[in-house]
């Protein structure tokens, strides 16, 4: 494994920690600033919106900068945002810090995916992407629980200061270990935008929004589901999140291992399995043992889609993958926001805390349908005589 992948994974670990740790520290932050929990929830929403906006924005701004230098600039932005959060004098400054840090998120994973894929042989691209995303999954096992504990015991500001320190380590690692890869010939904004004319790129992003949305429809409301339906105690929720993170870690490794050889079959299997497991969660959520096992499976199946989906976008972007890759990261967060809203809507409508699982199953099934359409279009293109094939735009 190239050591450069380790540097990217460290950056991913820091980003994953800061994204999710706020959920466990909302009461402390709300109390310190004298705001209600719903208002403090804007720190989660603001981050998600920042990722969706920042992914294309920061990537476009970096089209004339080498990918290594852009990764370093993004980590610097991430550090600045977390320091602003750590020393924020008021809630507005805290929210600004969250948004500043989030602007680096999508572009870092998008550009980082391209760099990771270029560091290895073509047949190992998905594995390299999975290695970088390992940092994100490990953050859910170690970084988020540890950051929550430190924040509750010592103070939430300490957590964000420590995350900023992780960002510095990631920045130094990128500076030292990531090589200066040559920029592709003719790389410019028009070329990057041209990738979105490829229907396969759009379909892959649709799979990302719907497939990962299926995961978040369930896990956004995991605390009330586990305590009110399954019967777990409040203190068990942290360890259930660790279990979910463990599933994400294992699924990410599985997706990276098999996507290089069987990308579309891997997507069919994981999206189909995710649909079935989410539907079953409406039943298994009523027992502690089966709920815990199902949570592990949701994490595994959900994150097993990440390396193949990201590689699918890279493969189909035809020599201009940077912007498409970054926008696909934003698509993950768009799916999160969509699913959280739909899940909340069915709970508000009175269907109970397990109803979001049905929403998740429908979203995952829709992603599977898009995968089948994508494969059918690809087979038709490959079977068409060369004279009648639609040319791929390379301008």
Structure description:
- This is MFS transporter.
- InterPro entries: MFS, MFS_dom, MFS_Efflux_Transporters, MFS_trans_sf.
- It is a multi-pass membrane protein.
- Keywords: Cell membrane, Membrane, Transmembrane, Transmembrane helix.
- The chain is an all-alpha fold.
- It folds into 2 domains: 1-183, MFS general substrate transporter like domains (Growth Hormone, Chain: A, Up-down Bundle); 185-395, MFS general substrate transporter like domains (Growth Hormone, Chain: A, Up-down Bundle), CATH 1.20.1250.
- It contains 16 helices and no strands.
- The protein has helices at 3-33, 37-40, 42-61, 67-86, 91-118, 125-153, 156-177, 189-194, 199-219, 222-230, 237-259, 263-284, 288-303, 306-316, 321-348, 355-383.
- It starts with a helix and ends in a 12-residue tail after the last helix.
- The relative contact order is 0.14.
Give keywords.
395 residues; Growth Hormone, Chain: A; 16 helices; 0% strand; globular; MFS_trans_sf; MFS_dom; MFS_Efflux_Transporters; transmembrane
What's the mean pLDDT score?
Answer: 84
Low-confidence residue ranges: 390-395
User: What overall geometry do the principal axes of the alpha carbons give?
Assistant: globular
**Domain unit count:** 2
CATH class of the largest domain: Mainly Alpha
User: What is the C-alpha radius of gyration, as a whole number of Å?
Assistant: 20 Å
> In CATH, what is the homologous superfamily of the largest domain?
MFS general substrate transporter like domains
Tell me which CATH architecture of the largest domain applies here: Up-down Bundle
Helical segment count: 16
What structural class is derived from the secondary structure elements? mainly alpha
CATH topology of the largest domain: Growth Hormone, Chain: A
Largest sheet: none
Number of strands: 0
